[in-house]
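Long-time lurker, finally posting.

We've been working with Ion channel (Halalkalibacter alkaliphilus) and I want a structural starting point before designing mutants. I don't trust myself to interpret raw outputs, so I'm hoping someone here can both generate the C-alpha coordinates and explain anything notable. Sequence follows.
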Amino acid sequence: MLFIFEIMRMTVKIKKLTLLLLTFIFLICSAFLIHWLEPEMFPDPFIGFWYVMTTVTTTGYGDFVPETTLGRLFGLFLYFVGIGLIGIVIGKIVEGFGIYRKLKEEGKLSYKGQGHYVIVGWSSKAKHTMNEILEIDDKAKILVIDSRAKTPFEHEKMSYIQGDPTDKEILEKANIIQAKAVLIFTQDNEFNPTAADGQSLLTVSAIEGYAVEMKQEIYTIVEILKEKHISNFKHANVDEFVIADEALSDLMAKSAVDKGSSKLIMKLLSRKSGVDIRKIKKQPVWQTYNDAFEELKQLGATLISDRNDFNLLTKLEEPIPNEAELYVICSKEAYEKMATS
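Top reply, 14 upvotes:
Generated this for you. Predicted structure of Ion channel:
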Protein backbone atom coordinates (compact mmCIF):
# COMPACT_ATOMS: atom_id res chain seq x y z
CA MET A 1 0.00 0.00 0.00
CA LEU A 2 2.84 2.40 0.85
CA PHE A 3 4.38 1.54 -2.52
CA ILE A 4 1.22 2.70 -4.30
CA PHE A 5 1.17 6.00 -2.40
CA GLU A 6 4.84 6.52 -3.33
CA ILE A 7 3.95 6.00 -6.99
CA MET A 8 1.13 8.54 -6.69
CA ARG A 9 3.49 11.06 -5.06
CA MET A 10 5.97 10.68 -7.90
CA THR A 11 3.23 10.89 -10.52
CA VAL A 12 2.05 14.28 -9.27
CA LYS A 13 5.54 15.69 -9.99
CA ILE A 14 5.61 14.48 -13.60
CA LYS A 15 5.18 17.06 -16.36
CA LYS A 16 1.71 17.30 -17.85
CA LEU A 17 2.51 16.03 -21.36
CA THR A 18 4.58 13.16 -19.97
CA LEU A 19 1.78 12.26 -17.58
CA LEU A 20 -0.80 12.24 -20.38
CA LEU A 21 1.42 10.02 -22.51
CA LEU A 22 2.07 7.58 -19.64
CA THR A 23 -1.65 7.48 -18.80
CA PHE A 24 -2.53 6.71 -22.41
CA ILE A 25 0.06 3.91 -22.53
CA PHE A 26 -1.20 2.55 -19.20
CA LEU A 27 -4.82 2.43 -20.43
CA ILE A 28 -3.91 0.75 -23.74
CA CYS A 29 -1.69 -1.82 -22.04
CA SER A 30 -4.41 -2.54 -19.47
CA ALA A 31 -6.94 -3.10 -22.26
CA PHE A 32 -4.68 -5.69 -23.94
CA LEU A 33 -3.83 -7.29 -20.60
CA ILE A 34 -7.45 -7.86 -19.52
CA HIS A 35 -8.17 -9.21 -23.02
CA TRP A 36 -5.26 -11.66 -22.60
CA LEU A 37 -6.32 -12.67 -19.07
CA GLU A 38 -9.99 -13.29 -19.97
CA PRO A 39 -10.44 -13.64 -23.75
CA GLU A 40 -13.94 -15.09 -23.38
CA MET A 41 -15.33 -12.16 -21.35
CA PHE A 42 -13.26 -9.57 -23.27
CA PRO A 43 -13.10 -10.96 -26.84
CA ASP A 44 -11.10 -8.04 -28.26
CA PRO A 45 -8.90 -5.20 -26.91
CA PHE A 46 -11.61 -2.62 -27.56
CA ILE A 47 -13.99 -4.38 -25.13
CA GLY A 48 -11.06 -4.52 -22.72
CA PHE A 49 -10.50 -0.78 -23.18
CA TRP A 50 -14.21 -0.17 -22.50
CA TYR A 51 -13.95 -2.08 -19.23
CA VAL A 52 -10.74 -0.27 -18.21
CA MET A 53 -12.24 3.17 -18.88
CA THR A 54 -15.50 2.47 -17.06
CA THR A 55 -13.46 1.21 -14.11
CA VAL A 56 -10.89 4.01 -13.77
CA THR A 57 -13.58 6.69 -14.24
CA THR A 58 -15.74 4.99 -11.57
CA THR A 59 -18.64 4.71 -14.03
CA GLY A 60 -18.94 0.94 -13.58
CA TYR A 61 -21.75 -0.08 -15.94
CA GLY A 62 -21.30 -3.75 -15.00
CA ASP A 63 -21.86 -5.01 -18.55
CA PHE A 64 -18.39 -6.61 -18.58
CA VAL A 65 -16.83 -7.99 -15.39
CA PRO A 66 -13.85 -10.32 -14.86
CA GLU A 67 -14.72 -13.89 -13.83
CA THR A 68 -11.31 -15.35 -12.95
CA THR A 69 -9.19 -14.68 -9.89
CA LEU A 70 -6.42 -13.13 -11.98
CA GLY A 71 -8.93 -10.91 -13.76
CA ARG A 72 -10.42 -9.74 -10.47
CA LEU A 73 -6.96 -9.08 -9.00
CA PHE A 74 -6.21 -6.96 -12.04
CA GLY A 75 -9.54 -5.16 -11.48
CA LEU A 76 -8.41 -4.37 -7.91
CA PHE A 77 -5.16 -3.04 -9.35
CA LEU A 78 -7.15 -0.74 -11.64
CA TYR A 79 -9.17 0.50 -8.66
CA PHE A 80 -6.09 1.44 -6.66
CA VAL A 81 -3.78 2.70 -9.41
CA GLY A 82 -5.99 3.58 -12.37
CA ILE A 83 -8.55 5.64 -10.46
CA GLY A 84 -5.79 7.55 -8.67
CA LEU A 85 -3.96 8.13 -11.95
CA ILE A 86 -7.06 9.45 -13.70
CA GLY A 87 -7.74 11.72 -10.71
CA ILE A 88 -4.25 13.18 -11.01
CA VAL A 89 -4.68 13.69 -14.77
CA ILE A 90 -7.99 15.49 -14.28
CA GLY A 91 -6.37 17.62 -11.58
CA LYS A 92 -3.53 18.50 -13.94
CA ILE A 93 -6.01 19.47 -16.68
CA VAL A 94 -7.96 21.70 -14.28
CA GLU A 95 -4.67 23.20 -13.10
CA GLY A 96 -3.72 23.86 -16.72
CA PHE A 97 -6.94 25.77 -17.33
CA GLY A 98 -6.28 27.79 -14.19
CA ILE A 99 -2.75 28.66 -15.33
CA TYR A 100 -4.05 29.60 -18.80
CA ARG A 101 -6.69 31.90 -17.30
CA LYS A 102 -4.09 33.52 -15.03
CA LEU A 103 -1.65 34.12 -17.89
CA LYS A 104 -4.44 35.53 -20.06
CA GLU A 105 -5.58 37.84 -17.26
CA GLU A 106 -2.00 39.05 -16.75
CA GLY A 107 -1.57 39.68 -20.48
CA LYS A 108 1.28 37.21 -20.98
CA LEU A 109 -0.21 35.16 -23.83
CA SER A 110 0.35 35.89 -27.52
CA TYR A 111 -2.68 36.83 -29.60
CA LYS A 112 -3.23 34.48 -32.57
CA GLY A 113 -6.24 36.16 -34.18
CA GLN A 114 -6.32 38.67 -37.01
CA GLY A 115 -8.55 41.50 -38.18
CA HIS A 116 -8.65 42.86 -34.62
CA TYR A 117 -8.46 46.42 -33.28
CA VAL A 118 -5.46 47.23 -31.10
CA ILE A 119 -5.87 49.86 -28.38
CA VAL A 120 -2.59 51.14 -26.94
CA GLY A 121 -2.97 52.74 -23.50
CA TRP A 122 -6.04 52.08 -21.35
CA SER A 123 -8.18 55.02 -20.23
CA SER A 124 -11.82 56.01 -19.92
CA LYS A 125 -11.61 57.27 -23.52
CA ALA A 126 -10.19 53.95 -24.66
CA LYS A 127 -12.99 52.06 -22.89
CA HIS A 128 -15.63 54.25 -24.50
CA THR A 129 -14.00 53.76 -27.91
CA MET A 130 -13.96 50.00 -27.42
CA ASN A 131 -17.67 49.97 -26.61
CA GLU A 132 -18.42 52.10 -29.66
CA ILE A 133 -16.43 49.77 -31.94
CA LEU A 134 -18.33 46.77 -30.59
CA GLU A 135 -21.62 48.60 -31.17
CA ILE A 136 -20.65 49.40 -34.76
CA ASP A 137 -19.18 45.98 -35.50
CA ASP A 138 -20.62 43.23 -33.28
CA LYS A 139 -18.02 40.78 -34.65
CA ALA A 140 -15.06 42.98 -33.76
CA LYS A 141 -12.23 41.74 -31.53
CA ILE A 142 -10.34 44.19 -29.31
CA LEU A 143 -6.80 43.79 -28.01
CA VAL A 144 -5.45 46.21 -25.39
CA ILE A 145 -1.74 46.87 -24.78
CA ASP A 146 -0.96 48.45 -21.41
CA SER A 147 1.51 48.20 -18.54
CA ARG A 148 -1.02 47.19 -15.85
CA ALA A 149 -0.39 43.98 -13.92
CA LYS A 150 -3.81 42.61 -14.90
CA THR A 151 -6.37 43.20 -17.60
CA PRO A 152 -8.09 46.54 -16.91
CA PHE A 153 -11.47 45.33 -18.11
CA GLU A 154 -13.19 41.95 -18.49
CA HIS A 155 -15.01 41.41 -21.76
CA GLU A 156 -15.52 38.29 -23.87
CA LYS A 157 -14.33 40.11 -27.02
CA MET A 158 -11.32 41.78 -25.42
CA SER A 159 -7.81 40.38 -25.02
CA TYR A 160 -4.93 41.90 -23.11
CA ILE A 161 -1.16 42.14 -23.63
CA GLN A 162 0.95 43.49 -20.78
CA GLY A 163 4.10 45.37 -21.73
CA ASP A 164 5.75 48.32 -23.44
CA PRO A 165 4.19 49.06 -26.88
CA THR A 166 7.57 50.32 -28.12
CA ASP A 167 9.00 46.82 -27.59
CA LYS A 168 9.10 44.71 -30.76
CA GLU A 169 8.35 41.54 -28.78
CA ILE A 170 5.12 43.06 -27.45
CA LEU A 171 4.05 44.13 -30.95
CA GLU A 172 4.66 40.58 -32.16
CA LYS A 173 2.65 39.12 -29.27
CA ALA A 174 -0.23 41.45 -30.19
CA ASN A 175 -0.01 40.25 -33.84
CA ILE A 176 -0.20 43.92 -34.73
CA ILE A 177 0.63 43.29 -38.39
CA GLN A 178 -2.73 41.52 -38.83
CA ALA A 179 -4.74 44.23 -37.03
CA LYS A 180 -7.37 46.33 -38.79
CA ALA A 181 -6.25 49.47 -36.99
CA VAL A 182 -4.12 50.62 -34.06
CA LEU A 183 -5.53 53.32 -31.78
CA ILE A 184 -3.06 55.11 -29.50
CA PHE A 185 -4.47 56.95 -26.47
CA THR A 186 -3.03 59.28 -23.84
CA GLN A 187 -3.67 58.59 -20.15
CA ASP A 188 -6.60 60.11 -18.24
CA ASN A 189 -5.99 63.46 -16.48
CA GLU A 190 -2.73 64.09 -18.32
CA PHE A 191 -1.49 67.55 -17.31
CA ASN A 192 1.66 67.65 -19.46
CA PRO A 193 0.62 67.70 -23.14
CA THR A 194 4.21 67.75 -24.37
CA ALA A 195 5.17 64.62 -22.41
CA ALA A 196 1.94 62.84 -23.38
CA ASP A 197 2.30 63.60 -27.09
CA GLY A 198 5.99 62.72 -26.89
CA GLN A 199 5.11 59.27 -25.53
CA SER A 200 2.54 58.83 -28.32
CA LEU A 201 5.24 59.78 -30.85
CA LEU A 202 7.60 57.13 -29.45
CA THR A 203 4.84 54.52 -29.59
CA VAL A 204 3.68 55.21 -33.14
CA SER A 205 7.31 55.45 -34.35
CA ALA A 206 7.98 51.97 -32.93
CA ILE A 207 4.83 50.60 -34.57
CA GLU A 208 5.52 52.14 -37.97
CA GLY A 209 9.17 51.06 -37.77
CA TYR A 210 8.03 47.50 -37.13
CA ALA A 211 5.63 47.78 -40.10
CA VAL A 212 8.49 48.87 -42.39
CA GLU A 213 10.63 46.00 -41.12
CA MET A 214 7.84 43.52 -41.85
CA LYS A 215 7.07 45.22 -45.21
CA GLN A 216 3.42 45.65 -44.19
CA GLU A 217 1.11 48.60 -43.64
CA ILE A 218 -0.46 49.33 -40.26
CA TYR A 219 -3.32 51.83 -40.03
CA THR A 220 -2.61 54.08 -37.04
CA ILE A 221 -4.89 56.59 -35.31
CA VAL A 222 -3.26 58.76 -32.64
CA GLU A 223 -4.87 60.92 -29.98
CA ILE A 224 -2.78 64.04 -29.34
CA LEU A 225 -3.41 66.88 -26.94
CA LYS A 226 -1.99 69.82 -28.93
CA GLU A 227 -2.38 70.42 -32.66
CA LYS A 228 1.02 72.15 -32.87
CA HIS A 229 2.65 68.78 -32.10
CA ILE A 230 1.38 67.22 -35.35
CA SER A 231 4.46 68.44 -37.23
CA ASN A 232 6.60 66.27 -34.94
CA PHE A 233 4.80 63.19 -36.30
CA LYS A 234 5.51 63.91 -39.99
CA HIS A 235 8.05 61.08 -40.28
CA ALA A 236 5.91 58.61 -38.34
CA ASN A 237 3.45 57.96 -41.20
CA VAL A 238 0.37 58.36 -38.97
CA ASP A 239 -2.90 57.85 -40.86
CA GLU A 240 -5.20 59.92 -38.64
CA PHE A 241 -4.98 62.30 -35.70
CA VAL A 242 -7.64 63.04 -33.11
CA ILE A 243 -6.93 66.31 -31.30
CA ALA A 244 -8.48 66.09 -27.84
CA ASP A 245 -8.31 69.69 -26.65
CA GLU A 246 -9.22 71.34 -29.96
CA ALA A 247 -12.12 68.96 -30.56
CA LEU A 248 -13.71 69.92 -27.26
CA SER A 249 -13.09 73.65 -27.88
CA ASP A 250 -14.59 73.45 -31.39
CA LEU A 251 -17.67 71.69 -30.06
CA MET A 252 -18.15 74.26 -27.29
CA ALA A 253 -17.78 77.17 -29.73
CA LYS A 254 -20.23 75.64 -32.20
CA SER A 255 -22.76 75.05 -29.46
CA ALA A 256 -22.46 78.64 -28.27
CA VAL A 257 -23.07 80.11 -31.73
CA ASP A 258 -25.69 77.62 -32.94
CA LYS A 259 -27.45 76.58 -29.76
CA GLY A 260 -28.26 72.87 -29.61
CA SER A 261 -25.84 71.92 -32.38
CA SER A 262 -23.58 70.04 -29.94
CA LYS A 263 -26.46 67.65 -29.16
CA LEU A 264 -26.84 66.93 -32.87
CA ILE A 265 -23.12 66.30 -33.31
CA MET A 266 -22.88 64.10 -30.20
CA LYS A 267 -25.88 62.04 -31.32
CA LEU A 268 -24.28 61.55 -34.73
CA LEU A 269 -21.07 60.39 -33.08
CA SER A 270 -22.92 58.07 -30.71
CA ARG A 271 -24.44 54.75 -31.71
CA LYS A 272 -27.56 55.61 -29.70
CA SER A 273 -28.88 57.71 -32.59
CA GLY A 274 -29.28 54.61 -34.77
CA VAL A 275 -27.24 56.11 -37.64
CA ASP A 276 -23.54 56.44 -38.30
CA ILE A 277 -21.00 57.89 -40.73
CA ARG A 278 -19.76 55.12 -43.03
CA LYS A 279 -17.16 54.97 -45.79
CA ILE A 280 -18.30 53.24 -48.98
CA LYS A 281 -16.71 52.23 -52.26
CA LYS A 282 -17.45 53.94 -55.56
CA GLN A 283 -19.61 51.70 -57.73
CA PRO A 284 -18.75 51.29 -61.45
CA VAL A 285 -22.26 52.39 -62.49
CA TRP A 286 -21.86 55.76 -60.76
CA GLN A 287 -20.56 58.23 -63.30
CA THR A 288 -21.48 61.42 -61.45
CA TYR A 289 -22.08 62.36 -57.81
CA ASN A 290 -25.76 62.64 -58.65
CA ASP A 291 -25.83 58.97 -59.76
CA ALA A 292 -24.42 57.98 -56.39
CA PHE A 293 -26.66 60.38 -54.48
CA GLU A 294 -29.88 59.08 -56.07
CA GLU A 295 -29.06 55.38 -55.72
CA LEU A 296 -27.90 55.79 -52.12
CA LYS A 297 -31.07 57.71 -51.32
CA GLN A 298 -33.11 54.72 -52.45
CA LEU A 299 -31.12 52.52 -50.06
CA GLY A 300 -31.75 54.85 -47.12
CA ALA A 301 -28.34 56.56 -47.06
CA THR A 302 -27.32 60.19 -47.51
CA LEU A 303 -24.13 61.00 -49.38
CA ILE A 304 -22.32 63.74 -47.44
CA SER A 305 -18.72 63.98 -48.69
CA ASP A 306 -15.88 62.84 -50.87
CA ARG A 307 -12.94 62.76 -48.44
CA ASN A 308 -12.99 66.25 -46.83
CA ASP A 309 -15.19 67.83 -49.48
CA PHE A 310 -18.70 68.47 -48.12
CA ASN A 311 -19.87 70.57 -51.08
CA LEU A 312 -21.15 67.70 -53.19
CA LEU A 313 -24.58 69.28 -53.64
CA THR A 314 -22.91 71.91 -55.83
CA LYS A 315 -21.08 69.22 -57.81
CA LEU A 316 -23.82 66.69 -58.49
CA GLU A 317 -23.21 66.70 -62.27
CA GLU A 318 -19.44 66.39 -61.95
CA PRO A 319 -17.83 62.98 -62.58
CA ILE A 320 -16.65 60.98 -59.58
CA PRO A 321 -12.86 60.54 -59.69
CA ASN A 322 -11.44 57.04 -59.41
CA GLU A 323 -9.63 57.93 -56.16
CA ALA A 324 -12.87 59.12 -54.51
CA GLU A 325 -13.52 58.19 -50.88
CA LEU A 326 -17.24 58.56 -50.32
CA TYR A 327 -18.89 58.93 -46.93
CA VAL A 328 -22.57 58.50 -46.10
CA ILE A 329 -24.88 58.82 -43.10
CA CYS A 330 -27.02 55.72 -42.70
CA SER A 331 -28.28 53.08 -40.32
CA LYS A 332 -26.55 49.75 -39.80
CA GLU A 333 -29.30 48.00 -41.77
CA ALA A 334 -28.90 50.38 -44.73
CA TYR A 335 -25.13 49.88 -44.69
CA GLU A 336 -25.53 46.09 -44.76
CA LYS A 337 -28.00 46.51 -47.63
CA MET A 338 -25.40 48.53 -49.56
CA ALA A 339 -22.76 45.89 -48.92
CA THR A 340 -24.94 43.19 -50.50
CA SER A 341 -26.33 45.24 -53.37
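Before you design anything, note these points.
Residues 285 and 291 are 8 Å apart (CA to CA).
The first helix runs from residue 2 to 12.
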